[in-house]
Amino acid sequence: MTDNRTKPEIDAPEGPAPAELVIRDITVGDGDVAKAGDTVTVHYVGVEYATGEEFDSSWNSGQSIQFPLRGLIAGWQDGIPGMAVGGRRELVIPPHLAYGPAGGHFLGGKTLIFVIDLLAVG
Question: What catalytic reaction does the record list (predicted)?
Fold first, then answer.
C-alpha cells in the first residue's frame, strides 16, 4: 500500500480541555479494523492541548511505528479499537488516560492531542 499522506497540522484548541477521552475520525478507513490487544502500525503526531506544542511524531523520522496496543497509554488502548486501516483519527486524551498527574512523566498532568494514521493491523 502506498501512503501518500502528509504530516497533519494540529492547531492549539480553544476552550477548556475535556475531562474524558474525545475520539474524532478525520478520515474513515476501509481496511481491517483494529481490536483491543492488536498490534498496530501507525504514523502519529502528538501535541500538548494547552499550547499546541508538538512533543512527539513518527513523521519526523519518516518511519511508521508498530506497537502492541496493550503496551500504550490508556487513551490509545481505548481510542484505536474500532478504527479501520486507512483512517486518520484524532484523540484528545486527559491526563488520567495519558501519563497521570503532574510530577512523574514530563507529560504528566497534561491533556494531549494525537492524530493517528492507522496503516496496518496484525
Answer: [protein]-peptidylproline (omega=180) = [protein]-peptidylproline (omega=0)
| φ, ψ at 78 (rounded to 5°) | -85, -30
Q: Where are the domains of the chain?
A: 22-121
Q: For domain 22-121, give the CATH number.
A: 3.10.50.40
- 86-116 residues labelled b (16+ CB within 10 A) or e (exposed): bbbbbbbbbbebbbeeeeeeebeebbbbbbb
Pick from 45, 42, 46, 22: nearest CA to 31? 42
Q: What is the pLDDT of residues 31-52, one digit of tens each?
A: 999 999 999 999 999 999 999 9
**CA–CA dist 53, 4 (Å, integer):** 25
